[in-house]
C-alpha cells in the first residue's frame, strides 16, 4: 500500500450530491478494518477510475481483495454502499519511481446501483480535450487539511485551483529531480499555496468547470505547496486505455 491518508488542502466541505461520481477507496493493508486511503471516480456501473500508484507497494500491485469502494456518501468511512473490488488494472507501463502512466481502473464485484444526485457515472475528457493555461479547475478528495494537521476529515472536500503552464511546472520541479511529461497536467495556486491536493488524495479527480474528469491526482510535494505544482495524470492522453480497461 502506498497512499498516505490526507486530503484537499485549503478546501471547503462538499456534499456527495455535488460530486455523485466520487468514490472513497478503502483498504485494510492485508489485515484489520477498512479505512479510506485513496479516491476515484465512477466511470461505468462496475468500473472506477483511479491512480496506479495507490495500489503499488515496492513495485508490486496490491491484491484486489485488500480494497473496497464506498459510493453514495459524503463521508469517507460511513454511509453509502461499499463494493468489493475484484480486479485492479494498472497501466502496463506505469513506473512507481517516475509516476509515468499513473492510472488504473478498478472493477467492482457487483454493478454499482446508480441513484440520481447520489451515485452517478462521471464524464471524462476525450482524446481531443484542450487544456488551457490558468484554466479554473476543481480538486476533490478526503483526508487532512494541511501538512500541520494530520487528522483526516470525514467529509468530502473541494478546492478551486488553476492549471499551470507545462514548462513552468517542469522548471519548478527540476530541482526536486522530478520530470513532468506531456501525459501529466499541473495544478495549484502558484506562489500562494493554501489550496491544493495532498498525497492521500491520490486517484481522486481533477475536474473542469463542467464537472468532467480531466485529471487523476498522482503526486505532490507536501500539501498545497506554493512552489511545486501538484501533478495529475492527463486523462485525455488515456481515454482509449481507460475505456478498454473499464470494458475488459
TrEMBL record:
Segments forming domain Peptidase S1: 8-247
UniProtKB keywords: Disulfide bond, Hydrolase, Protease, Serine protease
Recorded GO MF terms: serine-type endopeptidase activity
SUPFAM superfamilies: Trypsin-like serine proteases
Annotated GO biological process: proteolysis
InterPro entries in UniProt: Peptidase_S1, Peptidase_S1_PA, Peptidase_S1_PA_chymotrypsin, Peptidase_S1A, Trypsin_dom
Family, as annotated: Belongs to the peptidase S1 family.
PANTHER family: AT26814P-RELATED, POLYSERASE-RELATED
Listed name of the protein: Peptidase S1 domain-containing protein
Organism field: Heliothis virescens
The organism's taxonomic lineage, starting at the top: Eukaryota, Metazoa, Ecdysozoa, Arthropoda, Hexapoda
Amino acid at each position: 500500500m502506498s497512499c498516505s491518508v490526507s486530503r484537499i488542502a485549503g478546501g471547503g466541505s462538499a456534499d456527495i450530491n455535488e460530486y455523485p461520481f466520487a468514490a472513497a477507496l478503502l483498504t485494510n493493508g492485508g489485515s484489520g478494518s477498512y479505512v479510506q486511503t485513496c479516491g476515484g471516480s465512477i466511470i461505468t456501473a462496475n468500473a472506477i477510475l483511479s491512480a496506479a500508484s495507490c495500489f503499488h507497494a515496492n513495485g508490486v500491485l496490491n491484491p484486489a481483495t485488500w480494497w473496497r469502494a464506498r459510493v453514495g456518501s459524503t463521508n469517507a468511512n460511513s454511509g453509502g454502499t461499499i463494493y468489493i473490488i475484484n480486479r485492479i488494472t494498472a497501466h502496463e507501463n506505469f513506473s512507481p519511481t517516475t509516476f509515468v502512466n499513473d492510472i488504473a481502473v478498478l472493477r467492482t464485484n457487483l454493478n454499482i446501483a446508480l441513484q440520481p444526485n447520489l451515485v452517478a457515472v462521471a464524464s471524462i475528457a476525450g482524446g481531443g480535450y484542450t487544456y488551457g493555461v490558468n484554466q479554473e479547475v476543481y480538486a476533490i478528495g478526503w483526508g487532512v487539511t494541511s501538512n500541520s494537521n494530520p487528522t483526516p476529515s470525514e467529509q468530502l472536500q473541494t478546492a478551486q485551483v488553476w492549471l499551470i503552464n507545462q514548462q513552468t511546472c517542469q522548471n519548478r520541479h527540476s530541482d526536486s529531480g522530478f520530470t513532468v511529461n506531456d501525459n501529466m497536467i499541473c495544478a495549484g495556486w502558484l506562489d500562494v499555496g493554501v489550496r491544493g491536493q495532498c498525497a492521500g488524495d491520490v486517484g481522486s479527480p481533477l475536474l473542469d468547470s463542467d464537472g468532467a474528469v480531466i485529471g487523476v491526482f498522482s503526486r505532490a510535494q507536501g500539501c498545497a505547496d506554493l512552489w511545486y505544482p501538484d501533478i495529475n495524470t492527463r486523462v485525455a492522453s488515456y481515454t482509449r486505455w481507460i475505456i478498454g480497461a473499464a470494458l475488459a
